[in-house]
Amino acid sequence: xxxxxxxxxxxxxxxxxxxxxxxxxxxxxxxxxxxxxxxxxxxxxxxxxxxxxxxxxxxxxxxxxxxxxxxxxxxxxxxxxxxxxxxxxxxxxxxxxxxxxxxxxxxxxxxxxxxxxxxxxxxxxxxxxxxxxxxxxxxxxxxxxxxxxxxxxxxxxxxxxxxxxxxxxxxxxxxxxxxxx
Length: 181
Known about the structure:
Low-confidence stretches: none
CATH architecture of the largest domain: 2-Layer Sandwich
Number of strands: 11
């Protein structure tokens, strides 16, 4: 009898990065990611279970240690733990807890040209006034459905499906070159 094959997660952009004056585009290490859907009455219990206060204001995020919670909808959050091996609650909440660690990858864009680079492919106003630190949302970059999260004045994270890796990295690289002109 043949031995079973075990799939391992990999990053299609492993080893790719762009770092020039004013911009850095780097794939981040794999993280534990949970799609959480709970009714408003369960937000407190879910916050306690996950160890991070779930934001209830649209498009906001919260952090506690290596764990973050991004508000994506009235009853939907993306929970991210930078520790890919982190244990997550498996039940006991009224709602849905789905591990999507395998589904999304993350790129970090930082530097003084980060906003201009992202503006080349994103329809949102990414100024600090309109999109402050901590803001997150689903949107598009080029033809890619992304989750965009501003983690610093000049730092953003993009969560995307790995099948778009080559397209997304190429688009970001060209946009960074154009922003530097």
